[in-house]
TrEMBL record:
Pfam families: ABM. SUPFAM superfamilies: Dimeric alpha+beta barrel (SSF54909). Coiled coil: none annotated. InterPro entries: ABM_dom, Dimeric_a/b-barrel. It comes from the Eukaryota. Signal peptide: none annotated. The lineage of its organism: Eukaryota, Haptista, Haptophyta, Pavlovophyceae, Pavlovales. This is ABM domain-containing protein. Residues 47-120 form the ABM domain.
Amino acid sequence: MASLTARELVLCTLLGGVLLNWTVGQLMRAPEAPATRRLGQRAWLLVVRLQFKSKADVAAFLAIFAPMADAVSSHEPDTWGYTVSRSDQDSLALMIFERYATKDAYLSVHKAMKHFMKFRPKLQAMQDAKQVEVTGESFTELGVGFM
C-alpha cells in the first residue's frame, strides 16, 4: 500500500475539513419555509430599498437584520416572505422583500412584535447617522404569476 506524501496528506485534511464544514452547515440550516401560496388569496407586499454609505454599514445592518428575519420566521405565520437581497450592480444597495397575508398582518402584528420594536430603533439610528437611506413602497398582488 502506497503512503501519502506530506503535501497530499495536507490537501486531504483540508478537503475533509471543507466537506465536514459544509455538511454541518447543511444540517444546521433552518428547515425550508412552508409553501405560502394560498388559492385565491393575494398577499400584501412591502418592498424596502436601502442605500448604504459603506460596506461596514451594510455588514452592521445585516448583523441586526438576521435575528429579525429569524424571529419573523418563527413568530409571524401571516408573514409569507421576509428576505433581503443585494444588488448585483451596487454592493451598497440592498432590497428587503416583505410578503404578508394581509396589510393588517403588517400593521397590527409585525409592527407590534417585540423583535420589530428592538430592530426598528437600530435601523433608525443608522438613518439618523446618515449611514443608510431607506425608501419603500407597498403593493397588493394581482394574482398573476407566483412567488
